[in-house]
Amino acid sequence: xxxxxxxxxxxxxxxxxxxxxxxxxxxxxxxxxxxxxxxxxxxxxxxxxxxxxxxxxxxxxxxxxxxxxxxxxxxxxxxxxxxxxxxxxxxxxxxxxxxxxxxxxxxxxxxxxxxxxxxxxxxxxxxxxxxxxxxxxxxxxxxxxxxxxxxxxxxxxxxxxxxxxxxxxxxxxxxxxxxxxxxxxxxxxxxxxxxxxxxxxxxxxxxxxxxxxxxxxxxxxxxxxxxxxxxxxxxxxxxxxxxxxxxxxxxxxxxxxxxxxxxxxxxxxxxxxxxxxxxxxxxxxxxxxxxxxxxxxxxxxxxxxxxxxxx
Length: 311
Prior knowledge:
Elements: H1 4-16, H2 19-26, H3 30-44, E1 49-52, E2 55-58, H4 60-85, E3 92-98, H5 100-117, E4 121-127, E5 141-144, E6 153-161, E7 163-168, H6 169-175, E8 188-192, H7 199-208, E9 213-218, H8 221-229, E10 234-238, H9 239-242, E11 248-252, E12 260-267, H10 274-289, H11 291-294, E13 306-308
Parallel strand pairs: 3-4, 3-5, 8-9, 8-10, 11-13
Antiparallel strand pairs: 1-2, 5-12, 6-12, 7-10, 7-11
Helix pairs in contact: 1-2, 1-3, 1-4, 2-3, 5-10
C-alpha cells in the first residue's frame, strides 16, 4: 500500500528540484528525503525522478504520479482547512510569514502582548523574502508588500511603508555629488533580487541612477541596510529601519521612491478559525498603531538627518 508521506516527499522534491531545498521545506534531513523517494519508487517498481546536473527531473511515470499526487494533496488540504476552521478553541499553532526586517523589527516584539492575552496560542514566525503558499499550508497568515499570485485568499491593506534613498556620509564624501541628470555615474548601488518584495523600489533606484554600478543584490532587506551602513553604496530602504541606523544619511530627491502597501493575507477557509482570527486582529492593530513610524508625514523629509543633493 502507498504511504502518503512518501508521496508528500516526492512532491516536494519534484517541485523544488534538489534534496536540500525539499529537506528545508519539509524540515527534515536530505537523507530522509532520499530515503522516502527510494521507498516510493520501490513500492511502485518504477523510477519517478532522474537526477541531472540541474536537479531532479520527473520521468514520464513521475509526471503521471505527480498529477495524481497533487490531486490527493489538494483534497487532503481542503479537508484539513475545513476541519481546522471548525476548531473553536483559542489554542494551537499559527504560522505567520513575512519579510525578514518586518519579522525582526515589528512583529516579533509585538507578540509578547499577544501571548499575554492568549497564552495557549503559539506563533511560528517565518521570515521569508518570497511568498509561501497559504493554500498548501506552508503558512496560515502572510504579511506582504506586494499583491499575491495565489488564489482563494482574503486580502486586506492594513498600512503602508515609506522608503528613502540612503548612504553613509563617508561614502558620499568619497564619491562626490550625485548627479541624477548624469545617472549617478561612478556611484555604487545595493539592490534587491528580482523575486523579492522590494523590487518596485529597486527599479526606482536603478532608473534614477541608471549609470551607477550595481555591486550587491540581496533577498534580505536587513543585509541591504547593513551593506549600505558600512559604506557599500546607495540603497533604497524602508524608512522605519534605515532612519534608526545612525551610520546612514537619508538623501533628498526630487521624486520620492514609491511606498509599499502592507497587505495581510489569509486563506478564505481559515479566516474564521479563532486562533488565526486573534493573530490577524493583533497584526492589524500592531501595524496601524505604528503607522506614523512606518509612513512618516512628508514634512519629516526636512529633518536634520536628510542631506540635500543636486537632482
